Structure formats: C-alpha cells, structure tokens
C-alpha cells in the first residue's frame, strides 16, 4: 500500500494550515525527515521482503564488514547508538544462523570481539549490493544538478548542526 | 558527550575510502540520513532531559493535538507507522499521568477515541514551543539562501522518491 505508506510519513501535512513564511525551520526539518523516513521505510520493507532481515541487523553487519578484526559489543553499541542490551539481542540473532562469530582478542583474553563469518560476509555482500541498487532507484528521478546541489547543501547543514551542538554543550 | 554523539551518527565515514565519483547516491543518502539522525538524536535527548518524555510520546501527542475529535488507536498506529501493540503501550503511558483520555465515539459506541486532556494540551503546547525553538537553534547556522535552496530541493527529492515507490508498486 504505497499510498498509505506515503501518507503515514507525510509529516509536513501538520503544517498545512500555517502561514507560508512562518515556521520555516520546522518546515525544513519536517521535509528533511519526510525524505529520510520515506527512504528508510522502503529499505526496511525490502530488507524484510527480500532478505528476511531487519535494518538493525543490516546496520550491525555493515559495522562488522568494515572492521576485519571485529568490534566489541560496547563499541558496536556506541557506534549504533543503541543500548548494550539491544546490541546483545541483535548479536544473538546473527550468531544463531552463523552470520557472525565471537573471537577472543589477541592480547586481551577478556575482550570478546564480534566478526562476520565467511558466510556472513557473503550474505552481507549480497544485501549491501541490493541496498546500494535500491538507493540508486529511489534517487533516480533527482537530476544530476539537484543531486550535486543537495549534496553540497547537506554538508553545510551538517556542519551547522554540529556547530550548534558544540555551542550548546560549551 | 557531543563528540561521541556526532561520531556515532557519522554514517558517511563508511564511504571515506571509496573513490569520489563512486556511490554518489549512497553518499547522498548517508549525508541526508546523518543530518536527520543528528537532529533527531538531539531532539530525543532534549525531550528526555527537559520534559522527561520520549519522541514517540511527543509524536503521539502531536497527532492528537491537531485532531480535536481524537483518533482511534488504529488510526494512530497507521499514521505513526508503529504496531497496534506499541501504540497501546504508548497510549497507556500517556493515559496514566492524565495527558490523554479515552472518549467514546458520538455515533459508534464501540469505537474508542483518544484525545488530549486540557492538561495534556497545555503540556504539549510547552513541549511543542520548545521543539520549534530547538529546531530553529539547530538550523541557525544555515544561511537564508541555503535554507531556501534546500527546502526546494528536498521537495524535488520527495517527489522523486514518491514516484519511484509508485513505479515499484505498479
């Protein structure tokens, strides 16, 4: 039901009644969030339908894919911004089907590292290639010029947000 | 720990090694997602620190705030794209402190509508005003011209994504 899905994430509707110049920042935020939510919802749906997996599992495997030496649960938790408890459950769901394995650290025997198994690396390679293709499909209607402009503008936005967060914590 | 927070959501790092022209759509997506995640994480943090509430609770109250006649749990579930079970738990957490109340439908006695209580409306008014101010703070460093360009470009992106979703389901 693509119409329902689109309607559900059309956050901008909430500001439909507000005067045009008003709440400009809120409008920009809701439009940005709408785009992110539309894409993320579609990625979740396709991961589920085509690979019987979830976005958190895909994200965890992506973290491990770029760390051949593996990562501790604590480090994964920090990078994915999820609680230790959630990471443990997530890791268990990848350990059980043999996509991920535990490995002891070479020098610190107490530290447990998680790594992709060879099978996990193969499976993630397929998921990752599909994911990249899906993103390309979803952005296919964006002109090269808009694409380039947007990429540049989002860098400025990201820097501005970082600055605001630094000012806030100073 | 703002540095940790920023590092944790800097998804673009994963592509740092890829050639510049390569994976352009994936880069754009990760940059868009980074911006959305940075803002959302900060909003979650401030809602928790300053109002002892959560983003899902804030979002549910926002849905009810613009529907004076209330919404059924099913409709809330659809709009927020969360399961019926999660909406029930979420609603319970707002019913208990008297922010939300159940109301029977005027003609269909079986249908239960959730509404903000007068107290809930007051509390949401404060949260909503703070939320709008936070968003303005986070975007403060974006120039008016970039702001306008971005707003326009994101509309094009949203339309392109919608089109891609329609093509996919056709």
What does this structure look like?
The structure is a homodimer of 170-residue chains. Chain A has helices spanning 2-8, 24-51, 55-65, 73-80, 84-95, 118-138, 144-169; strands spanning 100-104, 112-116. Chain A has a two-stranded antiparallel ribbon with strand order 1-2. In chain A, helix 2 packs across helix 6, helix 3 (55-65) packs across helix 6 (118-138) and helix 4 crosses helix 5 (84-95). By secondary structure, chain A is mainly alpha-helical. The interface between A and B is large, with 63 and 63 residues.
Furnish the topology, listing elements before pairings.
2 copies of one chain form a homodimer.
Chain A: H1 2-8, H2 24-51, H3 55-65, H4 73-80, H5 84-95, E1 100-104, E2 112-116, H6 118-138, H7 144-169
Helix pairs in contact in A: 2-6, 3-6, 4-5
Q: Point out poorly predicted stretches of chain A.
A: 1-8
Kindly report how far apart the N and C termini of chain A lie: 47 Å
Lateral arrangement of strands in the main beta sheet of chain A: 1-2
Structural class of chain A: mainly alpha
Query: What gyration radius of chain A follows from the Cα positions, in whole Å?
Result: 20 Å
Separate helix tally of chain A: 7
The 3D shape of chain A can be described as: globular
Helix content of chain A: 55-70%
Count of strand segments of chain A: 2
Write a brief structural summary.
Two copies of one chain form a homodimer. Chain A is mostly helical. Chain A is built from seven helices and two strands, in the order αααααββαα.
